[in-house]
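Hi V.,

Quick status before I head out on leave. The structure for the redesign project is tokenized and pasted below; the design run finished overnight.
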């Protein structure tokens, strides 16, 4: 499956709830049509503790992220082969619509989520 999904985001949220690290990126702060949520709940194998859900999937899929690429204008997530059908994408490309995205905070939060995992961060 080669299915690249693209959307523009204006909002990035981070929080920790019940020891779960969560990062959400979307095109609206209250009712996003396009979004991406990455979370980590340490319970067993690290890669299995990291999940992704998007506006294209009905539920979170764990151990699905191969690589993330972050720069000041884009956030790209490559999905592992074999998990693409569950996520409904092979690659997700998010373009940030404004300069209000705190790049340093986003980078730090991604480092926390993927610390010790096999996911490549570039």
């Amino acid at each position: 499956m080669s299915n690249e999904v693209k959307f523009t985001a204006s909002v990035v949220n981070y929080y920790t709830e019940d020891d779960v690290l969560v990062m959400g990126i979307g095109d609206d702060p209250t009712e996003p049509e396009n979004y991406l949520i990455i979370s980590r709940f340490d319970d067993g194998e690290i890669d299995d503790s990291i999940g992704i859900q998007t506006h294209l999937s009905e539920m979170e899929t764990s151990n699905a992220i191969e690589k993330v690429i972050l720069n000041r204008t884009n956030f790209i997530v490559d999905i592992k082969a074999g998990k693409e059908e569950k996520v409904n994408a092979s690659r997700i490309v998010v373009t940030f619509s404004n300069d209000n995205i705190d790049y340093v905070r986003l980078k730090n939060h991604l480092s926390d989520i993927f610390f010790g995992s096999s996911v490549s961060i570039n």
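Above is the designed sequence. The longest strand covers residues 11-17.

G. will cover questions while I'm gone.

Best,
W.
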